[in-house]
User: Fold these one by one.
Assistant:
Number 1:
Amino acid sequence: MRDRVLNLKPMLCFFTLVVLVCMLSWVFFIGSLSLEKYYSNITILCRKVSSDNYNLVEGMKKLEVPNQAILKVFMYDLPAEFHFGLLGWKPDSSSKSVWPDVSVVDKIPGYAGGLNLQHSIEYWLTLDLLSSVLGDRTSSSIATRVDDSREADIIFVPFFSSLSFNRFSKNGTDKILQDKLVAFLIVQKEWKRSSGHDHIIMAHHPNSMMYARVKLWPCIFVLADFGRYPPRVANVDKDVIAPYKHIIERSMNGTSTFHDRKTLLYFKGAIYRKDGGFVRQELFYLLKNEKDVHFSFGSGDETGVQNASKGMRSSKFCLNIAGDTPSSNRLFDSIASNCVPVIISDDIELPFEDVIDYSEFCIFIRTSDALRKDFIVNITRAVNEERWSQMSSRLKEVENFFEFQHPSKKGDAIQMIWQAIARKVPSVRFKLHRTHRFSRYKHEFTKPADLDQHQLHN
Ligand SMILES: *[C@@H]1O[C@H](CO)[C@@H](O)[C@H](O)[C@H]1NC(C)=O
Ligand SMILES: *[C@@H]1O[C@H](CO)[C@@H](O)[C@H](O)[C@H]1NC(C)=O
Ligand SMILES: *[C@@H]1O[C@H](CO)[C@@H](O)[C@H](O)[C@H]1NC(C)=O
Ligand SMILES: *[C@@H]1O[C@H](CO)[C@@H](O)[C@H](O)[C@H]1NC(C)=O
């Protein structure tokens, strides 16, 4: 009896195999007939909106920027008081447009100077959209402004919220503008259509949109980090992290090598900080006696910036320590100075991290480790010339992703932000389609008369 069972086993296996092969080939045959078209459509869709366009070059991901518009954007014509009006610009009384003429680059109103510039993404993105329809720009724009909101992938809200906070919060104007904006948005047909899910709101200064943010939570925020946001209002799945505009001029000094940079580690910034900033003080006491470490407390004023830019350019590593908020423009100053960033900020969010691997050109240290004696110094001293030069040249490759300029150029910060927004479009569509499930049932299939009768019966 036992033998017979054993003999049957190979036959059973063979039989199962044959059945499986038959079934599989049948499935593939049917699949190739009907699904081929379907799949190729999906592939095209993905290629259009996702960031599938990298090549693997020598083990590192090379980012390829698409050559044509991938994002259709509808922009509200908000009154000038929300954008260029905050810069002192007034619409021409003879023209009905709320926008300055952007066809002559030299005549475009400039943004506010000094530290305001850190959060100027609102200005660059708005300018880029305004000029996306000019004849000579259409070919190189990632985002194109469209007039019909039904054609648009996303809806852009051109409020210069960071400038509004920086310049007009003291006398309450900033709050008034935020209240006005909310009142305006929630009655727009575009907002009602999507409950705001497809709206882009820029709030790069951590204190900007303080009052309006919780009311506008469904939208996509463009932020510096999530430090002051509850996770429901802003999070990494829904929102976009944009770089600060660096304050230190980009280092055009290509010759600054490992040995040229005499300082091992550089930090300059404010010492007493709220929240995560206590770390700065602790690190100061740990590092102040190391001979090739520069650790000082200084301000962001004109001479401070010049001094810091000299310091960063002559250092191998630049410390980025959490301050009031997890992020700061210092990271982008380091990148512009080709000084390898050492990041000590456990909650930092980094721009475009879905396409950039920061570990290729930054050193991340957990706060708990950084506070151990000699830990930072040991780690940075252990980096030899070869490894440092690798990181430095990788820094040069990514540098352009953090450059703001107008007109925008291929692969700069503006185009990178548009692409990051474009990568959110599929998930926005997903949300919208889900909200449509029952909306048609309510609006199209139920006649108002039926509803009335129903109400009468109750
Ligand atoms: C607030 O201050 C700004 C400039 O300091 C000024 O232009 C604006 O009119 C002021 N607004 C109010 C309501 O006082
Ligand atoms: C460029 O690098 C050289 C060599 O390290 C240095 O002497 C010079 O001061 C640098 N120039 C600037 C503008 O940083
Ligand atoms: C620049 O830094 C050096 C050394 O850290 C300091 O001695 C000098 O006073 C600073 N200069 C300015 C203008 O802040
Ligand atoms: C730092 O390096 C020294 C000397 O190599 C070693 O004794 C010490 O344990 C190291 N400290 C840390 C925290 O890694």
Note: Residues 71-245+417-430 form one domain.
Number 2:
Amino acid sequence: MKKILFGFVLIFLLIFTAACSETKPPSEPTTNQESSSTEQSAALSKENTSDTQTLAYNPPKMEDLEGKDDPISESIKRGYTYVNESYVTLDEYVGNNLSCTSCHAGAGVGEASSLVGVTAAFPEYNPRAGKVFTIEDRINGCFVRSMNGNMLPLDSQEMRDMVSYLTYISEGIPVRADIPWRKQNKMQVADLPKTDLANGEEIYKQSCIACHGADGEGIGANTGPAIWGEHSFNDGAGMARLSTATMFIQRNMPVGQEGSLTQQQAADVAAFILSQDRPKFPGRANDWPKGGAPKDSPYYNEIKSVIDGIGEK
Ligand code: HEC
Ligand code: HEC
């Protein structure tokens, strides 16, 4: 009887250990395409938001702070100035002639690349850096790429003020809400049409030159920003990807006639603009450390993931 009992215990133990060994700890994802992280955040949003359809686009206005001089109102006001007149007010950190408004229209509350709700969306996994980004990391991403400059120290007053401002324009947006006006400049690289540079140049001369200049130098950071050349964004910027520039242009340009270009026309003129010289991003070798670099990254063939043979060829 003892032997039988011992047998049962042994069998039970064997089954138990086998079952346990099947429950492996969650492994690191092997692919980190942008799509998979987007799916993950979409899933997160659905779980945490009860009704995503009713998000209203109604950011608080700067006028509402007029006459207020408490510390947080003052911080928000300074933050607004840094976002709206970046290369003038933050010239120590900005390496070109742009302001955040040059791409995030109306200091982030306009139609083009709205930043309304952005502080409710971070922290977020960033596949290009291979790590989770806080809102400060993301702001600094635009400083070193879009602004061709240097990172703001995390404990600087300037960084605190920019976070104050972005949090102010995000008021009322629930944490992890599925924000319908967010990330509108994305499209699948595979869906990009074949581009025609000569046609792109024609469109540029007809529809863009008045505000962005014959040499791409522009007429002003918030009226017609530098679009190529030494005063524009560098080749590590999101806007330097053909897919992002195409969608941005199709949705937001020419100012006053937004949405008038077909996707083919937007892609042609984007390709023409991106074929011109612009500053190089010094940190390129560290991008996409886990592979998965999109094929429309301008320096796709040079970056680490490809050098190491991890990325798609
Ligand atoms: C040359 C264009 C350009 C400039 C200038 C620029 N950005 Fe961006 N920024 C982008 C693009 C492109 C994205 C990607 C999201 C998108 O497509 O809307 C982005 C994304 C962001 C995000 C994350 C948005 C989100 O919903 O995930 C933040 C925050 C941000 N920028 C802040 C700034 C700040 C602050 C400045 C000024 C210091 C700035 N950006 C200047 C092009 C630009
Ligand atoms: C009436 C003036 C005007 C015209 C015409 C115009 N833009 Fe713009 N562009 C702007 C302004 C102003 C911004 C800043 C963002 C905003 O306010 O929407 C901008 C921003 C941009 C940016 C991002 C910032 C940068 O420096 O790269 C791109 C790219 C761009 N425009 C491309 C184009 C293209 C391509 C055309 C022609 C199809 C065009 N624009 C026509 C005024 C204009």
Note: The two ends are 66 Å apart (CA to CA).
